[in-house]
Amino acid sequence: MSYYLFKRIYFLQMKAEDRRFIEYWKDQRKGSRAGYYITYIIGWAIVTFFILFFLSKLLTNLWKTGGPYLIHIFITLSIVCGFLVTHYTWTHNEKRLNELTEDDNKEELN
User: Fold this and answer.
1) Nearest to 49 by CA among 19, 99, 85
2) CA gap 34, 43 in Å, rounded
3) Which end of the chain is more exposed for a tag (fewer CB within 10 A), N or C?
4) Which residues are within 8 A (CB) of 37 and not within 5 positions of it... i.e. 6 or more apart?
């Protein structure tokens, strides 16, 4: 059996969710890793900032006691959280892709 036929049969036997993930993640990897990081860090930083902002307004009186530097603290925390979430997502997706495609790689070596 040729390698390409085996690869096609294996791909068709996967769950639809796994096939979609492989296509999605390979499409994401076509762009640069830096572009991915920048886009998602900004997105997650905005979400995290709004969560911190509204929770601090709702549950505490930090805005009265925190002074003018509280906004800088929230921005910094938001960027750090955005980076951590983005980095975790990238590494998790890479591991998942490697696990799903490692059978292909093993067959390729034989």
Assistant:
1) 85
2) 14
3) C
4) 83, 86, 87, 90
Q: Could you report the per-residue pLDDT of 33-87, keeping only the tens digit for each?
A: 999 999 999 999 999 999 998 888 888 777 777 677 888 999 999 999 999 999 9
Q: How far is residue 40 CA from its own chain's centroid?
A: 7
Gap between the Cα atoms of 88 and 95, Å rounded: 11
Two tokens, residue 80: 């750090």
- In this structure, which amino acid lies at residue 49? F
pTM of the shown model: 0.74
Q: Where are the alpha helices (DSSP H) in 31-110?
A: 33-59, 62-65, 70-109
Ordered by start, the domain boundaries in the chain are 31-102
Contact 65, 8 (CB under 8 A): no
Cα 102 from chain centroid (whole Å): 21
